[in-house]
Specification:
By secondary structure, the chain is an all-alpha fold. It has helices at about 5-20, 30-50. Helix 1 (about 5-20) packs across helix 2 (about 30-50). The relative contact order is 0.13.
Amino acid sequence: MDAETRQRRIRQLAHEIWEAEGRPDGHAARHWAMAERLVAAEAAAEADDEALPPPAPRRSAGNGSTSS
């Protein structure tokens, strides 16, 4: 995620947190910090997903059986 996208996502989440808490005054720094942590967690989860190998193809139970 580039810096501009990251900032936009943080701003969006901070606003959502502010609204969810009833739009209190004086908590902008805390909301911003919470949003930064959430974005960092999202980025870490995304990186973990990209690092995992693709799942092995599944074999169905009926394939390859011989009939009598």
